[in-house]
Amino acid sequence: MSFDLSGRTALVTGSTRGVGLALARALAGAGARVAINGRTAEAAEAVAAGIEGAVAATFDVTDDAAVAGAVDSLGPVDILVNNTGMALRRSLVDLELDEWRRLLDVNLTSAFLVSRAVAPGMIERGRGKIVNVCSLMSELARPTTGGYAATKGALKMLTRSMCAEWAQHGIQANGIAPGYFRTDLTEPLQADPEFDAWLRARVPAGRWGEPGELGGAVVFLASSASDFVNGQLLFVDGGLSVVV
Ligand code: GCO
To answer: How far apart are CA 197 and CA 240, in angstroms?
Structure first.
């Protein structure tokens, strides 16, 4: 029963496709009422219609006023998954200031804004689960992903800061750190034979991950099975982060 999410409401940001959608499906499969978030109503409503009990929550996670309004209209949020993220593969010298700022806004500030909006209700109820979708790149870097890695490293420390301030209120804030998965974000890498060969040799499991393989981690961190786990990053990477 400790993995059962029945009666819980889960908001998953950026959940109309890719990893976010896989996480939303896993939470719904464990019994949660899932709010599907995207910037356009059409996509959020179409995805929500295909998931039992799901609702659409259309708002821009980088817009403070929109976040506050959306969280108010959703009602109590028991589980928040901060998934929204974007990648730009640029060397640091080629990364424009507006691109850097956009990465910060989408990958990091969004998690701050939505968490700050849902936390008061969680504090009042004395319980809540926050799962931040960090990354293998919260710990490891590679050329051309400096802006992305910087935001994911910061998201790791925001996760630990949430633990420091909110654990006393019965809130568990943890992160999932995906390695290399078959998503639209990595399509260019999958299509590059040289990168694909490098990855298969580099990952101990010898393959790309499939988005559905992140479901167990998010259900665990969203459920009472993880009530004494706080401030941690759960790496789902086929072993990549622990071998040279
Ligand atoms: C890259 C990849 C990585 C992975 C990320 C997933 O360009 O190296 O996009 O950033 O997608 O580690 O969390």
So the answer is: 14
pTM given for the model: 0.98
Please give the number of the atom of ligand 1 that sits closest to the Cα of 89: 7
**Relative to the CA of 186, which ligand 1 atom is closest?**
9
Our mutation pick for probing the ligand 1 site, out of 84, 186, 213, counting the most ligand atoms within 8 A of Cβ, is 186
User: pLDDT tens per residue, the chain (244 residues)?
Assistant: 799 999 999 999 999 999 999 999 999 999 999 999 999 999 999 999 999 999 999 999 999 999 999 999 999 999 999 999 999 999 999 999 999 999 999 999 999 999 999 999 999 999 999 999 999 999 999 999 999 999 999 999 999 999 999 999 999 999 999 999 999 999 999 999 999 999 999 999 999 999 999 999 999 999 999 999 999 999 999 999 999 9
Q: Is 148 a catalytic residue?
A: yes
Under DSSP, is residue 40 helix (H, G, I), strand (E, B) or coil? Answer: coil
Phi, psi torsion values for 11, nearest 5 degrees: -105, 125
Residue 220 phi/psi, 5° resolution? -60, -50
Measured from the Cα of 148, ligand 1's closest atom is 10
Alpha-carbon distance of 24 to 152, in angstroms, equals: 21
* Atom 7 (ligand 1) nearest CA: 145
Question: What distance in angstroms lies between residue 71's CA and the mean position of ligand 1's atoms?
Answer: 29
